[in-house]
Specification:
The protein has 472 residues and is mostly helical. The protein has helices at 8-44, 48-61, 72-88, 92-110, 118-130, 134-151, 157-172, 176-194, 199-214, 218-235, 241-256, 260-278, 285-298, 302-320, 325-340, 344-361, 367-382, 386-403, 409-461. 31% of the residues are buried.
Length: 472
Amino acid sequence: MPSIRCRPGFLVGAAILLTLWHVPLQAAGSVARDWEAFITLALQADTPQAFAEADTLFQHLRPLSPKEERDPARLVQGLERLVRFHRQQHHLTQAEFYQTQVLQQSEAQWGVSNLWLVTPLSDLATIQFDQGHFSRSRVSWERALAIVEETANPNHLLAVRILAQLAAIALAQNNPEEASRLHQRMADIQEQVLMMETPGDAIVLAHQAQYQLLDGHKEVAASLFQQSKEILMETSGPYHTTRVEVLTALAQLDYDDGDYPQATELLKSALAISENMRGTHHPDLVPLLQKLATSYQKMGKLNQSRSTIVRTLALVEELYGVDHEQGAEALLALADNLRLENQPGPAVEFYNRALVVWRNRDPVSGTGLLRTLMGLSRVQQMQGRLNAAIQTHQEVLGLLAKTVGIHHPDYLAAQRYQAELVTELGAKQQIVPATFSGLAQQLQHMQERLRIEGELRMVQDAPFVPYPMRRP
Protein backbone atom coordinates (compact mmCIF):
# COMPACT_ATOMS: atom_id res chain seq x y z
CA MET A 1 0.00 0.00 0.00
CA PRO A 2 1.49 3.34 -0.99
CA SER A 3 2.23 5.72 1.80
CA ILE A 4 0.43 9.09 2.06
CA ARG A 5 2.59 12.08 2.53
CA CYS A 6 0.91 14.98 4.41
CA ARG A 7 2.10 18.30 3.29
CA PRO A 8 2.07 21.27 5.69
CA GLY A 9 -0.59 23.05 3.66
CA PHE A 10 -2.87 20.04 3.92
CA LEU A 11 -2.52 19.92 7.70
CA VAL A 12 -3.31 23.62 8.03
CA GLY A 13 -6.41 23.27 5.84
CA ALA A 14 -7.62 20.28 7.84
CA ALA A 15 -7.21 22.18 11.10
CA ILE A 16 -9.21 25.15 9.75
CA LEU A 17 -11.93 22.78 8.48
CA LEU A 18 -12.22 21.07 11.85
CA THR A 19 -12.38 24.44 13.57
CA LEU A 20 -15.16 25.68 11.29
CA TRP A 21 -17.01 22.37 11.76
CA HIS A 22 -17.13 22.76 15.57
CA VAL A 23 -17.80 26.51 15.83
CA PRO A 24 -21.52 26.38 14.94
CA LEU A 25 -22.13 23.64 17.50
CA GLN A 26 -20.35 25.59 20.22
CA ALA A 27 -22.14 28.81 19.24
CA ALA A 28 -25.51 27.09 19.35
CA GLY A 29 -24.78 25.75 22.82
CA SER A 30 -23.62 29.17 23.94
CA VAL A 31 -26.77 30.83 22.58
CA ALA A 32 -28.95 28.28 24.37
CA ARG A 33 -27.18 29.03 27.64
CA ASP A 34 -27.54 32.76 27.00
CA TRP A 35 -31.28 32.41 26.42
CA GLU A 36 -31.61 30.51 29.68
CA ALA A 37 -29.61 33.25 31.38
CA PHE A 38 -31.93 35.90 29.94
CA ILE A 39 -35.09 34.08 31.08
CA THR A 40 -33.69 33.60 34.58
CA LEU A 41 -32.60 37.25 34.77
CA ALA A 42 -35.97 38.53 33.51
CA LEU A 43 -37.91 36.37 35.97
CA GLN A 44 -35.76 37.35 38.95
CA ALA A 45 -35.08 41.04 38.19
CA ASP A 46 -36.18 43.37 40.98
CA THR A 47 -34.15 46.52 40.34
CA PRO A 48 -33.99 48.92 37.38
CA GLN A 49 -30.39 47.86 36.77
CA ALA A 50 -31.36 44.18 36.54
CA PHE A 51 -34.15 44.96 34.08
CA ALA A 52 -31.73 47.06 32.01
CA GLU A 53 -29.30 44.10 31.87
CA ALA A 54 -32.17 41.86 30.72
CA ASP A 55 -33.03 44.41 28.02
CA THR A 56 -29.45 44.44 26.73
CA LEU A 57 -29.18 40.66 26.71
CA PHE A 58 -32.48 40.25 24.84
CA GLN A 59 -31.47 42.76 22.16
CA HIS A 60 -28.25 40.78 21.67
CA LEU A 61 -29.94 37.38 21.49
CA ARG A 62 -33.07 38.17 19.47
CA PRO A 63 -31.48 37.92 15.99
CA LEU A 64 -29.22 34.98 16.91
CA SER A 65 -31.32 32.31 18.57
CA PRO A 66 -33.06 29.42 16.81
CA LYS A 67 -36.63 28.90 18.04
CA GLU A 68 -35.99 25.38 19.29
CA GLU A 69 -33.56 26.72 21.87
CA ARG A 70 -36.29 28.64 23.72
CA ASP A 71 -38.69 27.55 26.46
CA PRO A 72 -41.89 29.27 25.20
CA ALA A 73 -43.83 29.43 28.46
CA ARG A 74 -40.95 30.73 30.58
CA LEU A 75 -39.83 33.09 27.83
CA VAL A 76 -43.32 34.65 27.70
CA GLN A 77 -43.31 35.04 31.49
CA GLY A 78 -39.96 36.83 31.36
CA LEU A 79 -41.09 39.12 28.54
CA GLU A 80 -44.29 39.94 30.43
CA ARG A 81 -42.24 41.03 33.43
CA LEU A 82 -40.27 43.39 31.19
CA VAL A 83 -43.56 44.78 29.86
CA ARG A 84 -44.84 45.46 33.39
CA PHE A 85 -41.57 47.08 34.44
CA HIS A 86 -41.49 49.45 31.48
CA ARG A 87 -45.15 50.37 31.95
CA GLN A 88 -44.50 51.19 35.60
CA GLN A 89 -41.57 53.35 34.53
CA HIS A 90 -43.72 54.96 31.82
CA HIS A 91 -41.37 53.67 29.10
CA LEU A 92 -44.28 52.93 26.78
CA THR A 93 -42.21 52.48 23.62
CA GLN A 94 -40.18 49.71 25.26
CA ALA A 95 -43.37 48.26 26.75
CA GLU A 96 -44.96 48.07 23.29
CA PHE A 97 -41.84 46.42 21.88
CA TYR A 98 -41.83 43.66 24.51
CA GLN A 99 -45.61 43.19 24.35
CA THR A 100 -45.20 42.64 20.60
CA GLN A 101 -42.64 39.95 21.43
CA VAL A 102 -45.13 38.36 23.85
CA LEU A 103 -47.76 38.31 21.10
CA GLN A 104 -45.34 36.74 18.60
CA GLN A 105 -44.34 34.02 21.04
CA SER A 106 -48.03 33.36 21.82
CA GLU A 107 -48.81 33.07 18.11
CA ALA A 108 -45.96 30.61 17.65
CA GLN A 109 -47.27 28.55 20.54
CA TRP A 110 -51.05 28.60 19.89
CA GLY A 111 -51.54 29.75 16.29
CA VAL A 112 -52.79 33.05 14.93
CA SER A 113 -56.53 32.59 15.63
CA ASN A 114 -56.61 31.10 19.11
CA LEU A 115 -58.81 32.63 21.82
CA TRP A 116 -55.72 32.76 24.08
CA LEU A 117 -54.39 35.58 21.88
CA VAL A 118 -57.12 37.97 23.06
CA THR A 119 -55.26 38.83 26.26
CA PRO A 120 -51.85 39.69 24.72
CA LEU A 121 -53.63 41.57 21.92
CA SER A 122 -55.67 43.54 24.46
CA ASP A 123 -52.55 44.43 26.42
CA LEU A 124 -50.80 45.57 23.26
CA ALA A 125 -53.78 47.67 22.20
CA THR A 126 -53.93 49.33 25.64
CA ILE A 127 -50.25 50.30 25.50
CA GLN A 128 -50.70 51.70 22.00
CA PHE A 129 -53.74 53.70 23.13
CA ASP A 130 -51.81 55.12 26.10
CA GLN A 131 -49.19 56.40 23.64
CA GLY A 132 -51.86 58.09 21.54
CA HIS A 133 -51.35 55.66 18.65
CA PHE A 134 -55.10 55.26 18.10
CA SER A 135 -54.91 53.71 14.63
CA ARG A 136 -52.52 50.98 15.75
CA SER A 137 -54.60 50.39 18.86
CA ARG A 138 -57.77 50.03 16.78
CA VAL A 139 -56.10 47.43 14.55
CA SER A 140 -55.11 45.38 17.60
CA TRP A 141 -58.58 45.61 19.18
CA GLU A 142 -60.30 44.73 15.89
CA ARG A 143 -58.12 41.66 15.53
CA ALA A 144 -59.00 40.61 19.09
CA LEU A 145 -62.70 41.12 18.31
CA ALA A 146 -62.43 39.02 15.14
CA ILE A 147 -60.84 36.17 17.12
CA VAL A 148 -63.67 36.30 19.71
CA GLU A 149 -66.31 36.28 16.97
CA GLU A 150 -64.66 33.36 15.13
CA THR A 151 -63.70 31.14 18.06
CA ALA A 152 -66.52 31.90 20.54
CA ASN A 153 -69.51 33.83 19.21
CA PRO A 154 -70.30 37.44 18.17
CA ASN A 155 -72.25 38.04 21.38
CA HIS A 156 -69.66 36.68 23.80
CA LEU A 157 -69.07 38.76 26.90
CA LEU A 158 -65.44 39.23 25.92
CA ALA A 159 -66.69 41.29 23.01
CA VAL A 160 -68.19 43.90 25.34
CA ARG A 161 -64.83 44.99 26.70
CA ILE A 162 -63.32 45.16 23.22
CA LEU A 163 -66.27 47.16 21.89
CA ALA A 164 -65.90 49.62 24.78
CA GLN A 165 -62.27 50.21 23.85
CA LEU A 166 -63.10 50.63 20.18
CA ALA A 167 -65.77 53.17 21.15
CA ALA A 168 -63.20 55.10 23.20
CA ILE A 169 -60.88 55.18 20.17
CA ALA A 170 -63.72 56.40 17.97
CA LEU A 171 -64.39 59.27 20.37
CA ALA A 172 -60.68 60.11 20.51
CA GLN A 173 -60.68 60.30 16.72
CA ASN A 174 -63.78 62.56 16.67
CA ASN A 175 -66.11 59.89 15.30
CA PRO A 176 -69.14 59.99 17.63
CA GLU A 177 -71.39 58.11 15.17
CA GLU A 178 -69.07 55.09 15.22
CA ALA A 179 -68.85 55.29 19.02
CA SER A 180 -72.65 55.34 19.27
CA ARG A 181 -72.95 52.27 17.03
CA LEU A 182 -70.44 50.38 19.14
CA HIS A 183 -72.19 51.36 22.37
CA GLN A 184 -75.49 50.12 20.96
CA ARG A 185 -73.94 46.76 20.15
CA MET A 186 -72.55 46.60 23.70
CA ALA A 187 -76.02 47.32 25.07
CA ASP A 188 -77.53 44.55 22.93
CA ILE A 189 -75.04 42.00 24.24
CA GLN A 190 -75.52 43.11 27.84
CA GLU A 191 -79.30 42.94 27.45
CA GLN A 192 -78.99 39.27 26.53
CA VAL A 193 -76.70 38.77 29.50
CA LEU A 194 -79.25 40.30 31.88
CA MET A 195 -81.78 37.58 30.93
CA MET A 196 -79.56 34.90 32.45
CA GLU A 197 -81.08 33.01 35.36
CA THR A 198 -78.64 30.28 36.39
CA PRO A 199 -75.73 30.30 38.85
CA GLY A 200 -73.36 29.75 35.95
CA ASP A 201 -74.70 32.84 34.23
CA ALA A 202 -74.27 34.80 37.45
CA ILE A 203 -70.63 33.73 37.48
CA VAL A 204 -70.24 35.01 33.91
CA LEU A 205 -71.78 38.31 34.99
CA ALA A 206 -69.31 38.54 37.85
CA HIS A 207 -66.41 37.92 35.47
CA GLN A 208 -67.73 40.58 33.10
CA ALA A 209 -67.91 42.98 36.04
CA GLN A 210 -64.26 42.28 36.75
CA TYR A 211 -63.38 43.21 33.17
CA GLN A 212 -65.30 46.46 33.57
CA LEU A 213 -63.32 47.17 36.74
CA LEU A 214 -60.04 46.66 34.91
CA ASP A 215 -61.18 49.23 32.35
CA GLY A 216 -62.10 51.70 35.09
CA HIS A 217 -65.89 51.47 34.59
CA LYS A 218 -66.87 51.21 38.24
CA GLU A 219 -70.55 52.04 37.81
CA VAL A 220 -71.06 49.38 35.14
CA ALA A 221 -69.13 46.87 37.25
CA ALA A 222 -71.24 47.65 40.33
CA SER A 223 -74.43 47.09 38.34
CA LEU A 224 -73.22 43.75 37.00
CA PHE A 225 -72.10 42.60 40.44
CA GLN A 226 -75.48 43.55 41.90
CA GLN A 227 -77.30 41.62 39.18
CA SER A 228 -75.05 38.63 39.78
CA LYS A 229 -75.86 38.74 43.49
CA GLU A 230 -79.61 38.86 42.84
CA ILE A 231 -79.47 35.94 40.39
CA LEU A 232 -77.54 33.87 42.92
CA MET A 233 -80.08 34.69 45.62
CA GLU A 234 -82.92 33.53 43.38
CA THR A 235 -81.30 30.45 41.87
CA SER A 236 -78.91 29.08 44.47
CA GLY A 237 -79.84 30.57 47.82
CA PRO A 238 -77.59 32.69 50.01
CA TYR A 239 -74.79 30.13 50.35
CA HIS A 240 -72.76 30.02 47.16
CA THR A 241 -69.03 30.48 46.63
CA THR A 242 -69.52 33.06 43.90
CA ARG A 243 -71.78 35.09 46.18
CA VAL A 244 -68.86 35.51 48.56
CA GLU A 245 -66.75 36.83 45.68
CA VAL A 246 -69.54 39.15 44.51
CA LEU A 247 -70.16 40.55 48.00
CA THR A 248 -66.43 41.08 48.48
CA ALA A 249 -66.16 42.89 45.13
CA LEU A 250 -69.15 45.12 45.96
CA ALA A 251 -67.59 45.85 49.33
CA GLN A 252 -64.36 46.88 47.63
CA LEU A 253 -66.25 49.29 45.38
CA ASP A 254 -67.98 50.86 48.39
CA TYR A 255 -64.65 51.02 50.22
CA ASP A 256 -63.01 52.80 47.28
CA ASP A 257 -65.88 55.29 47.27
CA GLY A 258 -65.45 55.96 50.99
CA ASP A 259 -68.69 54.25 52.02
CA TYR A 260 -67.03 52.27 54.81
CA PRO A 261 -70.23 51.35 56.73
CA GLN A 262 -71.77 49.73 53.63
CA ALA A 263 -68.48 47.99 52.81
CA THR A 264 -68.32 46.66 56.37
CA GLU A 265 -71.85 45.23 56.20
CA LEU A 266 -71.14 43.50 52.89
CA LEU A 267 -67.90 42.03 54.25
CA LYS A 268 -69.68 40.79 57.37
CA SER A 269 -72.24 39.06 55.14
CA ALA A 270 -69.50 37.50 53.01
CA LEU A 271 -67.69 36.34 56.15
CA ALA A 272 -70.86 34.79 57.58
CA ILE A 273 -71.53 32.89 54.32
CA SER A 274 -67.96 31.68 54.14
CA GLU A 275 -68.00 30.53 57.78
CA ASN A 276 -71.27 28.68 57.20
CA MET A 277 -69.88 26.91 54.13
CA ARG A 278 -66.29 26.26 55.21
CA GLY A 279 -66.20 26.51 58.99
CA THR A 280 -64.42 29.03 61.20
CA HIS A 281 -60.86 27.79 60.57
CA HIS A 282 -60.63 27.84 56.76
CA PRO A 283 -57.82 29.68 54.90
CA ASP A 284 -60.38 31.55 52.77
CA LEU A 285 -61.44 33.47 55.87
CA VAL A 286 -58.06 35.21 56.17
CA PRO A 287 -58.47 37.76 53.32
CA LEU A 288 -62.05 38.49 54.41
CA LEU A 289 -60.93 39.15 57.98
CA GLN A 290 -58.11 41.39 56.75
CA LYS A 291 -60.50 43.48 54.62
CA LEU A 292 -63.01 43.70 57.46
CA ALA A 293 -60.35 44.88 59.92
CA THR A 294 -59.24 47.58 57.49
CA SER A 295 -62.82 48.73 56.97
CA TYR A 296 -63.38 48.94 60.73
CA GLN A 297 -60.19 50.97 61.01
CA LYS A 298 -61.37 53.42 58.35
CA MET A 299 -64.59 53.89 60.30
CA GLY A 300 -62.60 54.74 63.41
CA LYS A 301 -63.76 51.58 65.20
CA LEU A 302 -60.27 50.68 66.37
CA ASN A 303 -61.37 48.24 69.07
CA GLN A 304 -63.36 46.14 66.58
CA SER A 305 -60.53 46.40 64.09
CA ARG A 306 -58.01 45.20 66.66
CA SER A 307 -60.13 42.22 67.74
CA THR A 308 -60.57 41.21 64.08
CA ILE A 309 -56.82 41.44 63.50
CA VAL A 310 -56.12 39.36 66.60
CA ARG A 311 -58.48 36.68 65.26
CA THR A 312 -56.73 36.84 61.87
CA LEU A 313 -53.31 36.44 63.50
CA ALA A 314 -54.44 33.46 65.56
CA LEU A 315 -55.95 31.78 62.46
CA VAL A 316 -52.81 32.36 60.36
CA GLU A 317 -50.52 30.99 63.07
CA GLU A 318 -52.81 27.97 63.41
CA LEU A 319 -52.85 27.32 59.65
CA TYR A 320 -49.34 28.30 58.57
CA GLY A 321 -47.17 28.78 61.64
CA VAL A 322 -45.61 31.90 63.14
CA ASP A 323 -43.25 32.70 60.24
CA HIS A 324 -45.78 33.01 57.40
CA GLU A 325 -46.13 36.24 55.45
CA GLN A 326 -49.87 36.33 56.22
CA GLY A 327 -48.89 36.41 59.88
CA ALA A 328 -46.51 39.28 59.17
CA GLU A 329 -49.39 41.13 57.47
CA ALA A 330 -51.54 40.62 60.56
CA LEU A 331 -48.71 41.80 62.84
CA LEU A 332 -48.25 44.87 60.66
CA ALA A 333 -51.99 45.64 60.72
CA LEU A 334 -52.04 45.26 64.50
CA ALA A 335 -49.05 47.57 64.87
CA ASP A 336 -50.71 50.17 62.63
CA ASN A 337 -53.86 49.91 64.69
CA LEU A 338 -51.99 50.50 67.94
CA ARG A 339 -50.12 53.43 66.40
CA LEU A 340 -53.43 55.03 65.44
CA GLU A 341 -54.61 54.48 69.03
CA ASN A 342 -51.53 56.39 70.21
CA GLN A 343 -49.97 53.34 71.84
CA PRO A 344 -46.41 53.54 70.48
CA GLY A 345 -44.88 51.09 72.94
CA PRO A 346 -46.94 48.02 71.97
CA ALA A 347 -46.88 49.14 68.33
CA VAL A 348 -43.06 49.00 68.25
CA GLU A 349 -43.16 45.43 69.57
CA PHE A 350 -45.46 44.24 66.77
CA TYR A 351 -43.57 46.18 64.08
CA ASN A 352 -40.36 44.44 65.19
CA ARG A 353 -42.05 41.03 65.16
CA ALA A 354 -43.26 41.67 61.62
CA LEU A 355 -39.77 42.80 60.59
CA VAL A 356 -38.28 39.49 61.69
CA VAL A 357 -40.67 37.59 59.41
CA TRP A 358 -40.20 39.92 56.43
CA ARG A 359 -36.40 39.86 56.66
CA ASN A 360 -36.42 36.07 56.71
CA ARG A 361 -38.73 35.86 53.67
CA ASP A 362 -37.93 38.78 51.36
CA PRO A 363 -35.10 40.96 52.61
CA VAL A 364 -34.60 42.94 49.40
CA SER A 365 -37.75 44.25 47.77
CA GLY A 366 -40.81 43.04 49.64
CA THR A 367 -43.56 45.62 50.00
CA GLY A 368 -44.38 44.17 53.41
CA LEU A 369 -40.90 44.97 54.65
CA LEU A 370 -41.19 48.47 53.21
CA ARG A 371 -44.55 49.20 54.86
CA THR A 372 -43.34 47.85 58.19
CA LEU A 373 -40.24 50.04 58.18
CA MET A 374 -42.32 53.10 57.32
CA GLY A 375 -44.72 52.40 60.19
CA LEU A 376 -41.85 51.78 62.59
CA SER A 377 -40.18 55.08 61.69
CA ARG A 378 -43.41 56.96 62.38
CA VAL A 379 -43.95 55.34 65.74
CA GLN A 380 -40.33 56.06 66.69
CA GLN A 381 -41.01 59.68 65.81
CA MET A 382 -44.03 59.58 68.13
CA GLN A 383 -41.75 58.38 70.91
CA GLY A 384 -39.31 61.22 70.28
CA ARG A 385 -36.61 58.77 69.15
CA LEU A 386 -35.69 60.83 66.13
CA ASN A 387 -32.25 59.32 65.54
CA ALA A 388 -33.80 55.84 65.42
CA ALA A 389 -36.60 57.10 63.14
CA ILE A 390 -34.08 58.62 60.73
CA GLN A 391 -32.02 55.43 60.67
CA THR A 392 -35.11 53.28 60.02
CA HIS A 393 -36.35 55.57 57.28
CA GLN A 394 -32.92 55.54 55.65
CA GLU A 395 -33.49 51.83 54.99
CA VAL A 396 -36.85 52.74 53.43
CA LEU A 397 -35.08 55.10 51.01
CA GLY A 398 -32.59 52.38 50.13
CA LEU A 399 -35.34 49.87 49.32
CA LEU A 400 -37.25 52.39 47.22
CA ALA A 401 -34.11 53.35 45.31
CA LYS A 402 -33.59 49.69 44.39
CA THR A 403 -37.17 48.88 43.49
CA VAL A 404 -38.71 52.00 41.90
CA GLY A 405 -35.75 54.35 41.39
CA ILE A 406 -34.89 57.74 42.85
CA HIS A 407 -37.21 59.64 40.49
CA HIS A 408 -40.37 57.76 41.44
CA PRO A 409 -43.06 59.73 43.36
CA ASP A 410 -42.92 57.23 46.25
CA TYR A 411 -39.19 57.80 46.65
CA LEU A 412 -39.58 61.57 46.50
CA ALA A 413 -42.34 61.47 49.14
CA ALA A 414 -40.16 59.34 51.41
CA GLN A 415 -37.27 61.73 50.86
CA ARG A 416 -39.46 64.65 51.99
CA TYR A 417 -40.46 62.78 55.14
CA GLN A 418 -36.78 62.06 55.86
CA ALA A 419 -36.06 65.78 55.53
CA GLU A 420 -38.85 66.52 58.03
CA LEU A 421 -37.31 64.12 60.52
CA VAL A 422 -33.88 65.70 60.14
CA THR A 423 -35.35 69.20 60.55
CA GLU A 424 -37.23 68.14 63.67
CA LEU A 425 -34.08 66.62 65.12
CA GLY A 426 -32.09 69.81 64.39
CA ALA A 427 -34.72 71.98 66.09
CA LYS A 428 -34.69 69.70 69.11
CA GLN A 429 -30.92 69.87 69.40
CA GLN A 430 -31.06 73.69 69.33
CA ILE A 431 -33.74 73.83 72.00
CA VAL A 432 -31.97 71.51 74.41
CA PRO A 433 -28.77 73.59 74.88
CA ALA A 434 -30.83 76.77 75.29
CA THR A 435 -32.95 75.03 77.89
CA PHE A 436 -29.90 73.84 79.81
CA SER A 437 -28.43 77.35 79.67
CA GLY A 438 -31.59 78.83 81.15
CA LEU A 439 -31.67 76.22 83.87
CA ALA A 440 -28.06 76.93 84.73
CA GLN A 441 -28.77 80.64 85.08
CA GLN A 442 -31.79 79.93 87.27
CA LEU A 443 -29.68 77.63 89.43
CA GLN A 444 -26.98 80.26 89.80
CA HIS A 445 -29.53 82.89 90.84
CA MET A 446 -31.06 80.46 93.30
CA GLN A 447 -27.67 79.63 94.82
CA GLU A 448 -26.85 83.35 95.16
CA ARG A 449 -30.18 84.02 96.80
CA LEU A 450 -29.72 81.12 99.18
CA ARG A 451 -26.24 82.39 100.08
CA ILE A 452 -27.55 85.88 100.88
CA GLU A 453 -30.47 84.51 102.83
CA GLY A 454 -28.12 82.22 104.72
CA GLU A 455 -25.87 85.09 105.74
CA LEU A 456 -28.85 87.14 106.92
CA ARG A 457 -30.13 84.20 108.91
CA MET A 458 -26.71 83.80 110.55
CA VAL A 459 -26.77 87.44 111.65
CA GLN A 460 -30.32 87.20 112.95
CA ASP A 461 -29.71 83.99 114.90
CA ALA A 462 -26.45 85.18 116.54
CA PRO A 463 -26.73 85.79 120.36
CA PHE A 464 -27.00 89.45 121.43
CA VAL A 465 -23.82 90.71 123.04
CA PRO A 466 -24.12 94.27 124.35
CA TYR A 467 -21.42 96.57 123.26
CA PRO A 468 -19.27 97.45 126.34
CA MET A 469 -19.58 101.01 127.43
CA ARG A 470 -16.44 102.99 127.96
CA ARG A 471 -15.83 104.38 131.33
CA PRO A 472 -15.67 108.04 131.54
